[in-house]
Amino acid sequence: MTRLMPAPVSVPNEIQKIVIVDRTKPQNETISIIEGMMTGELPFEVKNSIQATLSSLQQNLNTSPRFEIIRANDRLTGGLFGQEFPDPLSWRTVGQLCQKYQADAVLTLEMFSSDFIVTDKQQMIKKVITEGKTRRTIEVMGYRLEGIASVSAGFRLYDPQTRSIIDQQRFEKTNTWSAEAETKTQAMALLIAKADATRIVGEMAGAGYASKIAPMYRNISRQFYPKSKTHPAVAQGARFADVGKWDEAIEVWEDALYNADDKSGGMLCYDIAVAYEVLGILELAKEWAGRAYTDYGLKKGRDYVRTLNYEISREELVNQQMSQ
């Protein structure tokens, strides 16, 4: 099933349109270049990673029905390579940005740094060799390289109406890639490029922050009983469910309850609960899951009630976050 999940941060409902602003322009370009060279971060690599982070942020926010998103052309002075957030934007600047882009709030990327470390280890590796028409795998001494990319990105969300910062957080993301070969040079040629690695991790940071402030669609799965040794109606209804005919499945399962033993009755009630959840009727799903436990003693029904209580509370929160 695909379901809209609530965001950890509830943004005021009057905020419907957000402008995304890049605030990573260094205060001193020369010093910034020197700092980047000292940490191994070339200017174009950092800029590409920043753009990937902002693009990922925008794209993921656009997958949510919560906001209208626009990307600003402005690049403001902020905290490139900084470990701490810069001073907040003035409310005059925030107001000007909102007026310029007809937005209700300003979301900024205010600090950004990245790193890529390569480690190597000599060990036995597998190698495929060809002898005539035969291919076989042998072990030879070689090198295993690991490239570890990390990004630290700081975001702020400004509300000009209340003159408050709704949220401020630094997202740190890390990912590891590996490559093996007989020599270090060969392994390095197979390893992901630094620029690509930091770009990918930057995209992860942007996507991560988007899911913090906007309800997002997520896939969830449920299992239901496909058959019963004592009642054929369980399997008959399951066949309807397999092709998405959940209403027909419910009808079959409900009709079969009149002559079901305890074990099959619990299965039938449980499957009916799953069907109603798929149809989005969570209260009825909870009722039938409860019956699976109270009427037929199926312990999974009790556990399912707890799951549905959680889903109902999340649905209520989503409705609050989505109301205008």
Description:
This protein has 2 domains: 2-113 and 153-176 and 183-218, Rossmann fold, CATH 3.40.50; 222-322, Alpha Horseshoe (Serine Threonine Protein Phosphatase 5, Tetratricopeptide repeat). The chain is α/β, with parallel strands linked by helices and 324 residues long. The protein has helices at residues 29-38, 43-62, 91-101, 184-190, 194-213, 232-242, 246-256, 262-278, 282-294, 299-322; strands at 2-5, 17-25, 68-77, 79-80, 105-131, 134-159, 164-181, 216-219.
Q: Report how far apart the termini are.
A: 26 Å
In round numbers, the mean pLDDT is 92
How is the CATH topology of the largest domain named? Rossmann fold
| Poorly predicted sequence stretches spanning 5 or more consecutive residues | none
Detail the topology: elements first, then pairings:
Blueprint: E1 2-5, E2 17-25, H1 29-38, H2 43-62, E3 68-77, E4 79-80, H3 91-101, E5 105-131, E6 134-159, E7 164-181, H4 184-190, H5 194-213, E8 216-219, H6 232-242, H7 246-256, H8 262-278, H9 282-294, H10 299-322
Parallel strand pairs: 2-3, 2-5, 4-5
Antiparallel strand pairs: 1-8, 5-6, 6-7
